[in-house]
Amino acid sequence: MKLFLAGTFIAEELTKKYKPLYVLESFYYIKPWQIQEMSNWKMFLLDSGAFTFLHAAERKRVDWDAYLSKYIAFIKANGIEYFFELDIDAIVGYESVKAMRRRLESETERRCIPVWHRSRGLEEFKRLCKEYPYIGIGGFAIKTILPNEFPFVRKLIQIAAGYGTKVHGLGYTRKDAPEFGFFSVDSTTWSTAVSFGSTSMGRRLLRFGHRPERWGETTASEGNMRCRNGLNIKNILIGKDSEWINKSCTASRMGWTEAKCFAPPTRCGIFIANSGMAFSQTWM
User: Over 80: is that where the pLDDT of 153 sits?
Assistant: First the structure.
């Protein structure tokens, strides 16, 4: 399973320094520096920005034809290989979405990644699986698919597998995601530390602004994190096995720590953290 970092537009310095393998960005937010960085990423997914519009108060004033024209022009100008349709069913209706999909594919001369929503029904899911090699499932972030309905999602992915179709889970990075059978997932969860002043350290969350905490050889103090040599950090891996690693850390004013696994490249991950932001990425 591929884990895509979404919303990296807020973290230019961090993204450039550590070069994540898989990135998803919204056309609504994408920055010029991200376009320049695309060649450093193993795979890039371009989202249409539909999620933003589903939450925007001024969505009724959007000229969708003009927006789609800009989206198409961007895809063509930058040679984007993987891009999602405008899944704005809740705003314009599914028939209009399908018309926009046809135009999107006709003018880019490429197949998009359609995004199934529960309102489209099971038969439409099967039809999309028959016609497309890669589709998305939306509704996790906007809560139209609830946790008690996740077993149904597992069945959907099994149906897709029967057609040889890969499935991307939009906004789904819960720890059980690999068990679902997703080909890929994304979310902005990695960036929540910016809002809450936290740093993820293995399985332990260090929240700053509170009394100091201790964990193993790590000391967390307000606004800073210090490491001692030989710190044990639980590695984050895709697969059934995980490993303990040892990496010496040097304290700095920014509180940076970095830990890279010593597992074979086929099961390698990276953990990066600082006092205001944390993210991890794993790959096969």
Answer: yes
